[in-house]
Amino acid sequence: MNGERTQNENIADNAALKQAFFAYQQCTKTHKKSEKKLPGLTKYSSEQMFFLNFGHTLCEKMTKQSAYSYIMTDVHSPSQFRVFGSTSNFVEFDRVFDCKPGQGNSRVDKCSVW
């Protein structure tokens, strides 16, 4: 994978997740209806579900050949790195899942744009 080729999209992923989360928070403050829980997922808060949904939207399975082609040519990092990279740099992810820096997916040194 070429980090120089994916750098712009990596930055965009970090910024987009941050803005989408803050927009979600604003929307839930404005529209104070209680959100319904999905069966089987009731242990997760609304904010945790936001991040689970983010990961789900990038969930994919590729053959080895497709993955190799993707890594060699695409301007995006592979999906799992897009999810891990964006969430590991976002302090709100740590807060929502009660992660300490360096624990799980939480980085000690976060990269923040904007």
Automatic annotation (TrEMBL):
GO terms for biological process: protein processing. Residues 1-112 form the Peptidase M13 C-terminal domain. GO terms for molecular function: metalloendopeptidase activity. It comes from the Eukaryota. InterPro entries: MetalloPept_cat_dom_sf, Peptidase_M13, Peptidase_M13_C. GO terms for cellular component: plasma membrane. Pfam families: Peptidase_M13. Belongs to the peptidase M13 family. This is Peptidase M13 C-terminal domain-containing protein.
